[in-house]
Sequence to fold (221 residues):
Amino acid sequence: DAPVTALPTKTTQIIAIYGKGGIGKSFTLANLSYMMAQQGKKVLLIGCDPKSDTTSLLFGGRACPTILETSSRKKLAGEDVKIGDVCFKRDGVFAMELGGPEVGRGCGGRGIIHGFELIEKLGFHDWGFDYVLLDFLGDVVCGGFGLPIARDMCQKVIIVGSNDLQSLYVANNVCSAVEYFRKLGGNVGVAGIVINKDDGTGEAQAFADAVGIPVLSSIPA
Fold:
């Protein structure tokens, strides 16, 4: 439980999902967001990976225009970004992609910070969502990717991992970041881990037991 000392003021549950590239975060989030929407919840899915592939499963393989590229195009044209330019809906799920710079042409973390600043200007906290799901790369340690944990922008973190060293290394990094910021007074907690492509070796389960987090779901290989 988070070390909260006052009554909560937010009704929207903001959950950040972390894991190494290719581990199945987008797969997990597409299914989770769709399931929540089918249960009558108002859900916003935000892709925070520079690859901008979080929402493509929901949109039949098509990528949503990203906030960064739309913002740059509108700025050149002297126009303001409107919510309909960057937020899209399908099967009850609202979806956005922050995007990122081209390879070698900028910092992905800075892109994320700029993207969040823009959606806050658009009134992000007044949209009345039940859940906001954030898809983050976990194997990049720069400050931009740790933003939700460092700035208390989410309440919980869910890790997606599997029974391999790389994904568990990333999972441990995320748990360490959460612990570090909690010592500084942060309120973000780790909700647990989703084991994807579970081959039955039990390594991810052993990791979860060692760091004291629950296994939320185990998806067979």
